Structure prediction request, 214 residues.
Amino acid sequence: MIKPADLPNAIPIFPLPGALLLPRARLPLHIFEPRYLAMVEACLATPHRLIGMIQPGAAPGTRESRLHSIGCAGRLTGFSETEDGRYLITLSGISRFRLVRETTEGTPFRTVEPSWEGFERDLGQTEADTQFSRDRFFDLLGRFFSHHSLSTDWEALKDAEDELLINSLSMLCPFEPEDKQALLEAPSLSTRRETLVTLIEFALRGGTGEETLQ
Prediction:
C-alpha cells in the first residue's frame, strides 16, 4: 500500500482521450510511440513507478494541448515487451490528483507537479454503495449493452463487488471523453454510480431529452 507521504512531487503523464483510470482499478495500455516508450522506461527506474493518466482538453492535437485539471495516477504493475519493441503495460490505479503545473524539462514526454490533497480516500479501503439497487441497474445495463451490441460475462458482473462493478463499467463503456472526466471527478462511489446511470439513460434516449426507455 502507498501512503500519502510516499506520493511523489512530480510524475510523467500520458494524455490519452477517452482513457479512464480509477483508484483500485486496472488499465491495460499498448505503448508504441517513442516518447511514451521513453516514459515507461523512465517510470521503471523510479521507486514509485507512477504514471498519470489525464484527459486532454477540448482542443487536443499537439504535444502541448490543454489538459484537464484532474487525472489519476497508476502504478506500473504489469510489463511485457513485444518482438518489435512495443510495450504492453498495466497500470493499477492509486490516487487521483489535481494538476498544479507542468514541469516538463529535458524529456520527450510531459511531466507535472500533482497535488494529492482532497483525494485521501483513494488510498483507503474499497468503497461500498449502500443505495445501489442492483436489479434496476442490471435491467438498465442489459438494455444499454443490447442497444450498443456489446457482450459481457453477466455472471461475473453480477458477482462483482460494488466498486469493481461500477468502476469497471465506467472505464469500459463507450462514453465521450468529457463523460469519462465526469466519472473520474465523482467524489464518491455512489455519485459515480448516479453519473453512470445518467449517462446510460442518456445514451438509450439517443442523446435527446425524450423520456427514458422503459
Notes: The chain is about 30% helix and 25% strand. The domain at 4-123 is CATH 2.30.130.40 (Archaeosine Trna-guanine Transglycosylase; Chain: A, domain 4). The longest strand covers residues 87-102. The radius of gyration is 18 Å.
